[in-house]
Amino acid sequence: MTTGIRGGPQGAAVTFENVTKDYGQVRAVDELSLDIAQGRTVAFLGPNGAGKSTSIDMLLGLRRPTSGTVRVFGKPPHDAITAGHVGAMLQSGGLLSDVTVRELVTLMSRLHPRPLPVDDVLERANITEIAERKADKLSGGQTQRVRFAIAIAGDSDLIVLDEPTTGMDVENRQIFWAAMKTQAERGKTILFATHYLEEADQIADQVVVINKGRLLANGTAADIKAQAGFQKISFRLPGVTRDRLLMLPNVVSLEVINERVLIQTSDSDKTFYSILDAGYRPEEIEITALGLEQAFVAITQQDNGADAPEARAEDAR
Known about the structure:
Elements: E1 12-23, E2 26-37, E3 41-45, H1 52-59, E4 67-72, H2 77-82, E5 86-89, H3 101-111, H4 118-124, H5 140-151, E6 158-162, H6 170-185, E7 189-193, H7 197-203, E8 206-211, E9 214-219, H8 221-228, E10 231-236, H9 242-245, E11 251-257, E12 260-265, H10 268-277, E13 283-289, H11 292-303
Parallel strand pairs: 3-7, 3-8, 5-6, 6-7
Antiparallel strand pairs: 1-2, 1-4, 8-9, 10-12, 10-13, 11-12
Helix pairs in contact: 8-11
């Protein structure tokens, strides 16, 4: 297992200290303070326009903060990248034209201060079978896998991934995350932004949620679900309509689909007892905590001042 390197506070891999980024009159990142420990797998979540991409750009030295400090293993981002500590997979930008996948990966490996064997990189990224294809003649999913290969072409300590599985089919998404698990087991720090919230729930040790450039939540997936403060009630009730249930107490959102009632509530006991007091006798009852996707939507909608968290999780980009 590869050991980490000494970074900032308590060996942090990434530190944001009171970081602000303004574009004219628009504040994209607002006094963001955040530490990411070495060896963690961290999901970075937020709706469109939340400041995720700007934060990642500052972490990678592509943009400078208006105020505050970003450190990567205790160094300015440019110095950490020059030293080979960081590998990145970004959404934007195309691949070089008129070169094969192997030639591209070979080039990126040779440019890295700590290169890895090209065949190993191709295998880890599951692109050995397309190694001789032109890099600009690939499908969307194949292009994502090549971008991932570029991110791991050197023995970097931090791997930053922006929407890494976009365009991949289910099988390749599973292969991709198996490869990332191997990286994590080698002691690498992994920071990824995704709109597939089930990936964050299943894979991340730590979940960071930002909105309007501010930190809303930071903890395990279980912590984020608990912070939302809502539960789900689901049951079957033939003949009931949504209008007949709208006056139930503590209801945040309510749907009736084919006699199945789905409720989000801030107090499951009060809501459910009121259902019984109203004379209803529901069947097939389930009362559970919110999933990460629903908790994410609830937290961000609360911050936006909305009454009901009904935004789509696909907006978490």
